[in-house]
Amino acid sequence: MPPLGARRTPHRQWSRHAARSVLLAAVLLPLTVLSTGNMTALATPTTSARLEDQLDQLNRQSDQLVEQYNQSNEALARIRKSLKGLKAQATGAEDDLRKLQASLGARASAAYVQGAGSAVAAVLGSDDPAAAIARVQVLELLATNDGDLMDQLGVAGKALDARRSDLVAAEKAQAAEVKHLQAKKAEVERAADKTRALLARMRAADRPAAPARPSSPVAPPPAGGGGGGGGSGSAAAAVAFARAQVGKPYCYGGAGMSCFDCSGLTMMAWKQAGISLPHSSASQYNVGRRISASELQPGDLIFYYSPISHVSIYIGGGQRISATHTGDYVRVQSLGSSIVGYTRPNG
User: Labelling 7: which of 46, 64, 226, 327 has CA 20 to 30 A away?
Assistant: First the structure.
């Protein structure tokens, strides 16, 4: 056994590096494909840099799945709103139908009690011609009203049937959207699981050294950290909310208050300012006024990638607050790259 402090031989150093490379290759070989149509195979990394690149690519793919999940969720909310409206219409049609049936039933009961020819006999037996004519006119009006009631009853019944058909179609569409949403959610969960496994294995392979880039779920940063301005007016309220969430964990589909995804954070931030945003980064890009980089002010939104699958809120000083990705936290960051546009939600 060599004495303490003795230098390792080149052979032992080479063996250690070789073992580490073999470990990385063995661990990451299964992470070659994500089960989505547009996701390409990832090469097995042999260096920390390539490992970090693969992690970035996996996080971006996860962002795209989260965006699809959020868009599906928005579509489901619209279907449910339409379904609620159709149910209200159907309830109104049923009320109209019941009223018409009651009115027609009362008319039929009166005719049965009085006899079908009682009105005619009253006219023919009258000694007053004016009164006789008046009774005939009333008789004709009653017959006309009965016919109108029958027509209205038929129209109301057809309207109710049509609305019921609409309800059935909406329910089928909702069921299909729920199924689609569940499939997207399962894709996100699989991607998230792979991300967590990759993060854990990278830490194990690199221990005790820290990753070269802050991609892993290290301890959450202190709340409210970071410089920059706070904006003014409604934008200040949005920035203040975002700052208060720094350090909270990322979760897909999250919109507070324990965790957030990227568009959930910006949606809730601007909600404090009275601005309603959809829970989708791509949809948020269509709200408010689009601006240039030179116009950026605290509170403005910054969008990333094509197609858009990530959004952050600008806080001034070249910094943003973002709910990053699975395994990480809401944090203050520099603007970064892959920016595709900027918007000001309050115009």
Answer: 46
